[in-house]
Amino acid sequence: MSDIADITLKEITSHAKEYGFIFPSSEIYDGLGAVYDYGQNGVQLKNNLREYWWKAMVRLNENIVGIDAAIFMHPTTWKASGHVDAFNDPLIDNKDSKKRYRADNLIEDHIAKIEGKIEKELTKAAKRFGESFDRDMYLETNPRVKGYRDKIDAINQKMKVSMDSGDLGGLKEIIEEEKIADPISGSRNWTDVRQFNLMFKTEMGSLAEGANDIYLRPETAQGIFVNYLNVQKTGRMKIPFGIAQVGKAFRNEIIARQFIFRMREFEQMEMQFFVKPGEEMEWYHHWKEKRIQWHNALGLGHDNYRFHDHLNMAHYANAACDIEFQFPMGFKELEGIHSRTDFDLKAHEEHSGKKLQYFDNQEDRSYVPYVVETSIGLDRLFLAVLSSCYKNETLEDGSSRAVLKIPPAMAPIKIAVLPLVAKDGLPEKARKILEELRFDFECTYEEKDSIGKRYRRQDAIGTPFSVTVDHQTLEDNTVTVRDRDTMEQIRISTEELSEVVGKKVSINTLLHQLS
Known about the structure:
alpha+beta, BirA Bifunctional Protein, domain 2, Herpes Virus-1, Rossmann fold, about 40% helix
């Protein structure tokens, strides 16, 4: 995989558009901010990532089932969940640049810079001391490093207190005390911090008592919670069990930036795991381990992931962490794992007047289950794949190529069938091979341009295998199979093609690592 630190978000954005992965939405009308369309290759990659998550979560776990809840929900749902009153971002404007930022993000980015200073100190020390270098001891004893760590702890603690208490003035104090500047203009001329609700409001006719204001859902989790008892009873589910869902969510992000990392319309893959009260921490740690295992099986690089435990937890959580990924703009949240306690089900009990308790036959009692959540953004996962798999390579002959080394099972197109030349019966033979392969694989066919240029196009799309049909194919029914990553070529018969390629591009190659 490429060194993500050497890749810019601009390069990823440009490549994604040029090769049919992602387009700006409504581009002929100059686009719509922070809304994107997935192109012909993007939708295939997205479908493959979604399938990998769904099969790993639902097929491989006999106590997890899936649902597909509606986007529109009764408006009281969002009152019960706390979104009407508490789903806000703390925003701050810079008076000189006229740019708007999330105050907590500015502070977190400042902390990340201090962490970068620590890493530089560690790198220098490792070079100086060689094999005798003890990283942990250096972190604890070096005065400069210890000072950086104490500073981070102090900032985090003050931010936690401010966020928990809703003290917006406290957030501005941190920004001023740390001399945090506008990342664009360098100015420190800030407004006060204020709250902004992120839900999109719309209207629906004929709701009871004239309450016709409803919301586009800001998350998919609540659709699971309001259906929890329906699923439990009809599926005869026993605690512990989970409900999974993939679907669109909508947030009126004021600070929507960084390509598809933060969008106003996005897709979530969530699983809510219902457990006995008192056992939530055991399952919380279980799902932390299972989810990082799932990510590592993709092969995007173990060093590109890290856990970040929350100091500032949501009002419903008693434990929370993020799996962060090293995107081109640094380590950012990819997936959240939260112990949500019984907050959601109890809140819906209170607001609906309906009991949402589980009767435990073994204990002969009823209780409201606790919930452990795993929630990953499909669009962010898509960006993680592009970021880690995109590479510019200089070849032995001095030429270069842009290649997407997407895990073969996730690649949008698995096989490109290419006649060496567009004559002598080679296109006809190639199309016969293509028609057979299409039953098992996503395939494409190309005959325009030289074979070298066609290889380069398939490399840029991320196609793991190219099958070249030449004059020898007409004689002995063999073809050349080129590997995208190594560019090595082997000669095999057309009868072997499906089996040889199938083993390497099957999603089961990933799923078997999880069992």
